[in-house]
Amino acid sequence: MKALMELFLVSTKLGLTSFGGPIAHLGYFHNEYIRKRRWMDERSYADLVALCQFLPGPASSQVGIGIGMIRAGLLGGLIAWLGFTLPSVIALIWFAFLLQGFDIGNAGWIHGLKIVAVAIVAQAILGMGQKLAPDKKRATLAIAVASVSLMWQTAFSQVLLIAAAGLIGLWVYRRTTVQEAPGIPVPVNRTFAVLCLIVFFGLLAALPLLSQAFANGWLSLFDSFYRSGALVFGGGHVVLPLLEREVVPAGWVGKEDFLAGYGAAQAVPGPLFTFAAYLGAMAKGVPGAIVATIAVFLPAFLLIAGALPFWNSLRKSPRVQGALIGINAAVVGILLAALYDPLWTTAIVAPADFALASILFVMLVFWKSPPWIVVIAGIAGGMLLV
After folding, report:
1. How many other CB atoms sit within 10 Å of the CB of residue 289?
2. Comparing C-alpha atoms, which of 262, 294, 286 is closest to residue 371?
3. N or C: which end of the chain has fewer CB within 10 A?
4. What is the pLDDT of residues 180-234, one digit of tens each?
């Protein structure tokens, strides 16, 4: 019980203070969990990060869940996730209620939030592109995925593009050299891990069928957010196009509200996947926020619990590493497509909008300004422009 309480307090502290997105979160985790408390050694932490980068879902949240599981078993993973996630969930639910009942379409501060989202996603593309698509093969694959994604917009196009990129990477990089590394001790048995993986794939297959068969609004909501959480490679920013295609056409959230919430999500600490809480609250109030949050994070929990016991073997495979290289390049392409539609086409409608987006981008990339400062600057700029 003492270990669980300590884990909850530490993870809640991180949930209240971890600004800056997934990459920054990994730095906060390293400082708090590894340097200060020495709950894991450096190599084991690096291996855990590598696993979570490989899996679909919110990478930083999965790292936190994994540390909690290694520290205190399955309940520890749940406690670590709850502490890290709850602060931003509460903040975004409050923001959703603040917006409801207002006509925000022409509000200057909302327009500023949209421009903030453009700058932040552009920064994410720059950083991810330099790391995940640094050569002509991967850059070409990223651009090809972006182009096809923009011209072929269906519910399954991104999943198929990611799968195709994985197959291309598996073939092109099949002889990738993998360094030997010590294993990670995991207090989760393989039988339970297999059960988690069966549940993950079972829900992924069954939920769309059930939501169509029963035409239940709550089941459809759970299905949409579960699939979004299960099919995202690359972390929080990449969930944007998946969620937009789930909630906007369905009429649960308008495009203006969607982009306003995404901009606001940059101003709060914790994982970007808590954007689902805002969307759920806009659609169906507090119960909707709870359902959406559980649904979007459930795949992450099932996957990390299912994969951790097998990772020591998988990460030695050159084929697995090759597929991951292709998938990562595709992630850059999907995010690039999302930068254009819906972000750019909605937010950048005049030369002054482009000027403000450029200033915010420079603040993020070159001045290294904290995201919350950039959000405030964007809101102020938006109010001056409108």
Report:
1. 25
2. 262
3. N
4. 656 667 788 899 999 999 999 999 999 988 988 887 889 999 999 999 898 876 5
